[in-house]
Specification:
Structural class: mainly alpha
Oligomer: single chain
Helix content: 55-70%
Largest sheet: none
Distance between the termini: 88 Å
Number of helices: 12
Shape: globular
Mean pLDDT: 84
Low-confidence stretches: 1-25
Order of helices and strands: HHHHHHHHHHHH
Radius of gyration: 27 Å
Length: 283
């Protein structure tokens, strides 16, 4: 009987490496395809159809929807109240945003009143405890004991629950930018002239870019867009000169607003947790 030897060759080291790279690429490609069928891609696409920083837009929209859901369904939720007590209410921005959402819900303030009732009771208890501290301290001859007690008991033990939610939203969608960067549809939207990531959110995306190709893509795009904005800002200033005041106005006329957004985010974004945020430089 004739013996037939297998003609199948074992893959060389190079072929193994190529196979592994191809497999990794397919995994990443499949993840991108799956992601484009998900809600995160819808949110990403919505952000990329606005002007300015898309991540700012996503965070703002998410915070608004979170508040809408919270006020409509969760004012009596124990976990929500626990977080609100830890931070002693919302931060300034989210408190007044809550007022606007309350109005949109056609409410006369009942949702926010219900949410804050137990918080106000807790505040009263702290004040009453401080009065008791004054009587006890009088016997011990301590200096300004009421102030010391208030400084201790009034200090928040947690951050604004909407700030915490916004931070998590930002972190998640920064990773989504990195995941989708190789997709042609994403690039077409992201590279549009109307899109410019603000400085803080550009850094957020760069923190998620763990490989060189991804980092270089976002760095190159940001560089091009900042160069374009600088040219528009120069043109804006030149047209204030007497010699150029007769010239028609174009895109450059909003460049100063784009610069504000670039360095400080869209109005309503207050990234108090970020050491690179202008809000924290004097703290």
């Amino acid at each position: 009987m004739t013996e037939f030897k297998s003609t199948t060759m074992k893959p060389t080291h190079t072929e193994k490496g190529t196979s592994q790279k191809s497999s990794l690429f397919n995994v990443e490609e499949n993840e991108v395809i799956r992601n484009k069928r998900s809600i995160p891609w819808v949110r990403l696409e919505e952000g990329l159809h606005t002007s300015g920083c898309p991540l700012c837009e996503i965070v703002l929209t998410s915070a608004h929807k979170h508040l809408d859901s919270l006020l409509y369904e969760y004012v009596n939720d124990v976990s929500v109240r626990k977080k609100l007590h830890a931070s002693f209410g919302f931060c300034n921005h989210h408190a007044w945003l809550a007022k606007e959402v309350e109005r949109e819900l056609k409410s006369d303030g009942q949702h926010l009143a219900t949410l804050h009732e137990s918080l106000l009771k807790a505040e009263l208890r702290l004040l009453q405890e401080a009065s008791g501290t004054k009587r006890i301290a009088a016997k011990k001859k301590e200096t300004n004991p009421v102030l010391q007690h208030l400084l201790k008991t009034f200090a928040p033990s947690g951050e604004c629950l909407l700030c915490a939610s916004s931070r998590q939203t930002e972190e998640f969608y920064a990773s989504q930018f990195v995941l989708m960067y190789s997709d042609n549809e994403f690039r077409a939207l992201f590279e549009a002239e109307t899109i410019l990531m603000c400085r803080p959110h550009f850094l957020s995306v760069m923190r998620e870019a763990h490989d060189r190709a991804t980092a270089e893509y976002f760095l190159n795009q940001q560089t091009k867009k900042i160069e374009r904005l600088l040219n528009q800002l120069k043109l804006f200033l030149e047209k204030h000169d007497v010699q150029h005041q007769h010239e028609p106005r174009g895109k450059e006329w909003t460049s100063w607003l784009q610069v504000l957004e670039h360095f400080s985010c869209k109005q309503g974004i207050d990234r108090l947790w970020d050491p690179y945020s202008p809000s924290n430089q004097n703290k």
